[in-house]
Design goal:
The structure holds two protein chains of two kinds. Chain A folds into two domains: about 45 residues; about 240 residues, Orthogonal Bundle (MetI-like fold), CATH 1.10.3720. Helix content of chain A is about 75%, strand content about 0%. In chain A, helix 3 runs parallel beside helix 6 and helix 3 crosses helix 10. The longest helix of chain A is centred in the N-terminal third of the chain and has 43 residues. Chain A is flat and about 75 Å long. Chain A starts with 5 loop residues before the first helix and ends with a helix. Chain B folds into two domains: about 55 residues; about 230 residues, Orthogonal Bundle (MetI-like fold), CATH 1.10.3720.10. The chains are: A mainly alpha, B mainly alpha. At the A-B interface, helix 1, helix 3, helix 4, helix 5 and helix 6 of A face helix 1, helix 3, helix 4, helix 5 and helix 6 of B.
């Protein structure tokens, strides 16, 4: 560098200054996003925490904010979790197993792959319209829990299939060869060896998909979940409400008290989601240990 | 001896036959489950097209696609969808203007500058941000973003496009950041080392080597995020209101295609009428616009992917 002119040296300094500036800018942007998450959570907690008590959890909605509660919505959401899990997990994992373990690589399986990728990108509100036309109207299931659960299952099916396929693909071929060489059939190999090995990965994907279903609002509005439900659903054919619907209803009212109720509802919703994610991590850690 | 061996071979073949039957049944069940996804697509397309055809028997496509007034529920009604498309465009472009630079910068930070420890900590937080239900972002827009905007711009309306665009931008930022980060990290280290070896600064390496090399993945993440913004419903409905608007303004209440669908399904339209059928006509547009963007994004991923060893 001794022979470089003064001009070149100045250029070099400027280039490095620009580089440092750029690095700092990127860091600031990233940390701002993290900061934003903190602001969001702190805001909601500050707004809603004072309303969050047993009375809130154990009351039905009311026109009087002090008496309003989230019982029906919370129970509705718990029903939804169970029903969607019962419908979407078996179907989604079965489809993933078929595509990875049984299907011949051909036109049809390629078509199904492209189709699943595109379904994952369809706006949730379109699934709501599908649910309204098929489950509510055509199968005459009315505005019931089961209509909502079936709609949500269709919505998260692509996510479950994609995640499960990735988990199944991670299982080493040697495990399959070992089982097959000992005379196991395709399905025996799949059921007793591939599935247990892929289980932690599948569970993680499934629970993430389920938590997406729990937070979705638009499809439930379409199929007609109500925001004013003063009873608990007794079975899958009953009408219902769910946490995001109740939050939407409260948030869209102008009074400040209802906005704070919405915040309290959001805290409950986020706790449910957090518990589900914690379960996913717990299951993953536990099964991973057992396999070692 | 001979009888026993005969018996065992018989029982063996029965067991084998039984297994084969079970195997076939299971395989059929698995295949049916796989076909559910195909049926879903067919059902969506058939339903949307059939109901839209019914709609276009009442309203001329010319009025729908080029009309500038959207008054489906009042008399005299008018079914020009442009105000709704315009509302969606405002939100989407606004969100993209916010999320694309910020998301790409975050991705560059995560893949080029952050230490492994920081990355292991920040990336899950960004994914958490992506997992927050959209109705929560709607609440955030109403109770935080809009009040802040109102102190900055006093004549902004309570429901406005800007607030919606900002929260949708925040919402799609993690998608861009995490997917672009994956794309940038897939660029081999040797390319960076070669550039550093000839004296490039980290800024030059990033902007001239790494980002161009990972461009297909980065572009795909932009398109995916944009398609999410177009289909986004609750945040926009809560933040930006229900007023079809064809003006070039971020400060007034607007209505997106998704917000209109929510408005109709919350109750005013009698089932079976033309107003009810608009639901399907609008949803059909929404479906095909997002489908087109998703297909382009997959095409870019497949067509322009640089493969390195």
């Amino acid at each position: 560098m001794a022979f470089s002119s003064e001009q070149e040296q100045r250029n070099l300094v400027a280039r490095h200054r620009r580089s440092r500036l750029f690095a700092r800018l990127c860091a600031v942007v990233t940390w701002s996003s993290v900061f934003l998450l903190a602001v969001l959570l702190v805001r909601v907690s500050l707004d809603g925490l004072s309303w969050l008590d047993w009375q809130f959890l154990d009351s039905f909605p009311s026109r009087i904010p002090e008496r309003a509660g989230i019982k029906a919505a919370l129970v509705g959401t718990l029903w939804m979790i169970v029903l969607v899990a019962l419908i979407a997990i078996p179907v989604g994992v079965s489809a993933a197993l078929y595509l990875e373990e049984f299907a011949k690589r051909g036109r049809l399986s390629r078509l199904i792959e492209v189709n699943i990728a595109n379904l994952a990108g369809v706006p949730s509100i379109v699934y709501g319209i599908l649910g309204l036309a098929i489950f509510v109207r055509f199968f005459a299931l009315e505005r019931s829990l089961i209509s909502g659960a079936l709609t949500m299952s269709l919505l998260i099916l692509p996510v479950i299939i994609i995640a499960s396929r990735e988990a199944i693909r991670m299982v080493p071929m040697s495990i399959r060869y070992a089982a097959l060489s000992l005379g196991a059939t395709r399905w025996q190999t799949t059921w007793s060896h591939v599935l247990p090995s892929a289980f932690p990965g599948i569970m993680t994907g499934v629970i993430l998909a389920l938590s997406r279903a729990i937070g979705e609002t638009a499809p439930l509005i379409l199929i007609g979940a109500m925001s004013f439900v003063a009873f608990l659903p007794q079975g899958p054919m009953d009408s219902f409400t769910a946490l995001p619907i109740q939050i939407y209803d409260w948030a869209s009212r102008p009074q400040a008290e209802f906005q704070e109720l919405a915040a309290a509802g959001i805290i409950v919703l986020l706790i449910v989601l957090l518990l589900m994610n914690a379960t996913a991590i717990y299951i993953r850690n536990k099964t991973e240990k057992r396999q070692k | 001896m001979s009888s026993s061996s005969g018996q065992s071979s018989v029982s063996f073949s029965i067991r084998k036959g039984g297994l084969r039957w079970g195997e076939t049944a299971i395989k059929t069940w698995l295949r049916i489950c796989t076909l559910v996804s195909l049926f879903t697509t067919v059902a969506i397309v058939v339903l949307l097209l059939a109901e839209s055809l019914g709609f276009f028997r009442e309203v001329s496509p010319l009025e729908f696609f080029f009309g500038t007034r959207w008054v489906p529920l009042l008399n005299p009604s008018s079914f020009g969808v442009l105000p709704l498309v315009w509302g969606t465009t405002l939100i989407t472009v606004g969100a993209a203007v916010i999320a694309i630079p910020l998301g790409l910068a975050s991705a560059i930070y995560l893949s080029e500058y952050a230490s492994d420890r920081v990355r292991a900590w920040v990336k899950p937080v960004l994914e958490l941000l992506a997992g927050i239900p959209t109705v929560v972002y709607g609440y955030f827009a109403l109770t935080f973003v809009t009040p802040v905007l109102r102190t900055l711009i006093p004549d902004i309306q309570v429901f406005n496009a800007l607030s919606g665009a900002i929260v949708v931008g925040i919402m799609i930022l993690p998608t861009i950041a995490t997917l672009s980060d994956n794309a940038l990290r897939a660029v081999p280290v040797s390319l960076r080392q070669a550039a550093y070896a000839v004296g490039a600064t980290s800024y030059e390496v990033t902007t001239r080597i790494v980002v161009p090399a990972g461009l297909s993945g980065v572009m795909a993440s932009f398109l995916l995020a944009i398609s999410r913004a177009i289909g986004e419903t609750m945040a926009v409905t809560l933040a930006s209101g229900q007023t079809p608007n064809l003006e070039f303004t971020m400060l007034e209440s607007i209505q997106t295609m998704t917000a209109y669908i929510v408005q109709i399904s919350l109750g005013d339209a009698p089932s079976g009428g033309v107003a009810y059928q608009t639901l399907f006509a609008v949803a059909t547009m929404l479906f095909f616009i997002t489908l087109l963007i998703n297909i382009i994004s997959q095409w870019i991923l497949g067509r322009f992917r640089e493969v390195y060893d």
